[in-house]
Write a structure and sequence with these properties.
The complex is a heterodimer of chains A (123) and B (218). Chain A is an all-alpha fold and 123 residues long. Chain A is built from 7 helices and no strands. Classes of the chains: A mainly alpha (123), B mainly alpha (218).
Chain lengths: 123, 218
């Protein structure tokens, strides 16, 4: 049976403020259930609850590294997998964000605007 | 940073936790929630035994979430007398009040729309306004506001345990149920007669200590 704090952590995973959101994106992209996610991170399944409730690492590279290290230092999870989970989630969210604005995917398929000299613009 | 085992974070670490929240420590929200969610939920359940546990859990979660998102809302320098736990209790009570008020509004709308086919929850409250959980919380707040006791002097407060401070607060709110105090004292599993005796003894002791400190408002 799911305890109150487990449920609270699962709810928090819908909020991008929390690491739980990144773990959820990663688990979905890898088709992992909780046991699979825990195995991938190299931790016990019950550790997923406090992990989900951590703040999502900041994006600026030095802060990102420091935040990942702080989380790994506390929970002894696999640093590479954790960093990969957050980066992948960031990428997925960026993709969803641009798609939600309606121009991201279309821009990728659109011909580049020609410059005055006949070459294509790279911007 | 020293790794902590689950469940070993003691509540007195509130100030440190708050400082870590302000410093963007990524583990601080987790530590806060893991340390305070269950005690806060249990406290609300003890205080409002007629409510559903999930309502108390939601209010506790909302209070913790609000502090995580806006740690500046807690000002330890202004609230020196109030621990982080006390602050969260106040916040959770307010969240619970809002939650129940919203549920009641929703219930009223449903009742208007479908006065015949009542849900069990609606049936519980209709015709018995006093049994409405939102009213219970509101009434407690009104009673508290109407008869706010003088604040405890620091000299007395310093000698009281958190449980005793909470007992005094409940006594000021005119809480009469033995079970509420028994839960606070951790004797809810004992026979009722024993609970009554222990609760009375604890209350009498607190009355006397407050009288001696000259702040008993009864």
């Amino acid at each position: 049976m799911t305890s109150g704090i487990d449920q609270f952590a699962r709810n928090a995973a819908s909020d991008p403020f929390f690491l739980g959101s990144a773990l959820a994106d990663y688990a979905a992209s890898e088709h992992l259930d909780d046991a699979g996610l825990a195995a991938s991170l190299g931790c016990r399944e019950e550790l997923l609850t406090p992990l989900r409730l951590c703040r999502r690492p900041r994006t600026e590279p030095s802060l990102f590294r420091a935040d990942i290290e702080a989380i790994v230092g506390r929970f002894a999870v696999n640093a590479d997998t954790l960093a990969e989970a957050v980066r992948r989630s960031d990428a997925l969210r960026r993709l969803r964000g641009t798609a939600a604005h309606g121009d991201g995917m279309l821009m990728a398929a659109r011909d580049r605007e020609p410059n005055g000299d006949g070459t294509e613009s790279t911007s | 940073m020293t790794p902590l085992q689950l469940g070993t974070l003691s509540l007195p670490d509130g100030r440190d936790l708050h400082a870590r929240l302000l410093a963007y420590d990524p583990v601080a929200p987790s530590d806060l929630a893991m340390a305070y969610f269950e005690p806060l939920t249990a406290w609300l359940e003890a205080l409002y035994p007629r409510l559903y546990p999930h309502e108390c859990a939601t209010a506790a979660g909302d209070a913790i979430m609000a502090l995580i998102k806006n740690p500046h809302s807690y000002k330890p320098e202004r609230q020196r007398r109030e621990s982080l736990l006390s602050y969260l209790r106040m916040s959770a009570t307010a969240k619970l009040s809002n939650l129940l008020r919203a549920e009641r509004r929703h219930g009223n709308r449903r009742a208007n729309l479908d006065a015949v086919a009542l849900s069990p929850v609606m049936g519980k409250y209709l015709g018995d306004e006093d049994a409405d959980p939102a009213r219970i919380v509101e009434r407690r707040e009104e009673e508290s506001a109407a008869s706010t006791p003088p604040p405890l002097p620091d000299s007395l407060r310093a000698t009281l345990s958190p449980v005793e401070i909470e007992m005094l607060r409940l006594m000021d709110l005119k809480e009469r149920k033995t079970i509420v105090f028994a839960r606070l004292l951790g004797i809810a599993d004992q026979p009722v007669a024993e609970q009554r005796r222990e609760v009375k003894r604890a209350k009498d002791r607190l009355h006397k200590r407050r009288q001696r400190a000259g702040t008993d408002h009864d």
